[in-house]
Amino acid sequence: GHYDTGGFEHYLLKEISEQPETVARTLRGRLDERFHIAHLGGLNMDARETRSFRRVKIIGCGSAYYSGQIGAQLIEELARIPADAEPASEFRYRNPVVDPDTLYVAISQSGETYDTLAAVQELKRKGGRVIGIVNAVGSAIAREVDGGIYLHAGPEVSVASTKAFTSTAVAFALLALHFGRVHDLSPADGRRIVDGLAKLPDQIEEILKQGDRIRDFARKYAGRPSIMFVGRVRGYPVAREGAQKLKEISYIHAEAYPASELKHGPLALIGPEMPTVAIVPDDELLDKNLTTLGEIRARGGNVLMIGHREPDAKLADDAIVVPKNEIELDPILLTIPLQLLAYHAAVALERDVDKPRNLAKSVTVE
Ligand code: AGP
């Protein structure tokens, strides 16, 4: 169908800006305000089966894998089912044990990524139960899986994934709620998540209003050769996605580390040349994260903090404050400023924003 940049300078900015609507579309018809559950008919799974899994293994490539890391944390926190994510490209080559008590979840925006498709086919060959979280309806991966969740985010044209990433995280929140409510997630916690999910579109809109401010920070930091991204637990997959986005479209070197690992090595990189983007959710790790910021500043490193409150000037040079939701859902909101940061850095450096060098929108070959 007809699809253009709709008055935006790039598809990427259009797709970032669409997220209030695309997140709403991923949620549409799936939240039950009465029983605080999620309706996910596409899973094709009865109640007995939904209760039967002992583990969840999530696979995907690149940004899909990072959104899967957010998903694994959501499933562990809300459903208390052990879950982890792994790059599909690695999984398919290491002859993994295919466990009958594990639910496998394959993530793909395009539904055509060859490594992810090959991993799904290998799983199915060995009797694994696989569901998909996919954007492109009727795509190869969507056809191969036993059921799943469509994102309904609409076509994503820009090579860098943005709206598919946030919609995937939202789909995982729905899945975690769905599993949680047949395990031991209380009705009160179910309501908390249902209400939190419903608030996301308006909160994303609030973040988008800070675009000019984020552009100023992007211009300030775009001249640096390398940028460190750090986050703890819920903030870590967000940091990884932020670094990936920046690398992909601005070609600025970026590293993502768990904030807790800095002192085990990469702190040696920190100094006036290397600024840090710190993801600081307002959760039980807030104090630990603030201590880390102090350690970075003490080595002369500049800090741009992405969090939910204005930091002390001693701890951060700059800050982007985003609205607060439930702690489990905050990673979704904390991702949005990083997309805008990468976008504006790429524009400032006059990169080919929608078609970065050496990359394809979907890697359909080995
Ligand atoms: C994201 O910005 C990248 N272009 C890339 O990592 C992408 O997410 C990955 O190739 C997976 O694509 P898929 O979701 O279409 O399978």
TrEMBL record:
Ranges where the SIS domain occurs: 45-185, 217-356
The reply on keyword Nucleotide-binding is no
Which keywords label this protein? Aminotransferase, Cytoplasm, Glutamine amidotransferase, Repeat, Transferase
Name the enzyme's class.
transferase
**Reactions catalysed, as given in the entry:** D-fructose 6-phosphate + L-glutamine = D-glucosamine 6-phosphate + L-glutamate
The EC number(s) this enzyme carries: 2.6.1.16
Compartment list: Cytoplasm
GO biological process terms on file: carbohydrate metabolic process; fructose 6-phosphate metabolic process; protein N-linked glycosylation; UDP-N-acetylglucosamine metabolic process
Q: Where is the active site?
A: K361 (for fru-6p isomerization activity)
The primary site where this protein sits is: cytoplasm
GO cellular component assignments: cytosol
Molecular function GO labels: carbohydrate derivative binding; glutamine-fructose-6-phosphate transaminase (isomerizing) activity
Could you give the subunit structure recorded for this chain? Homodimer.
Which purpose does this protein serve, as stated in its record?
A: Catalyzes the first step in hexosamine metabolism, converting fructose-6P into glucosamine-6P using glutamine as a nitrogen source.
Q: State the name under which the record lists this protein.
A: Glutamine--fructose-6-phosphate aminotransferase [isomerizing]
What species is this protein from?
Nonomuraea endophytica
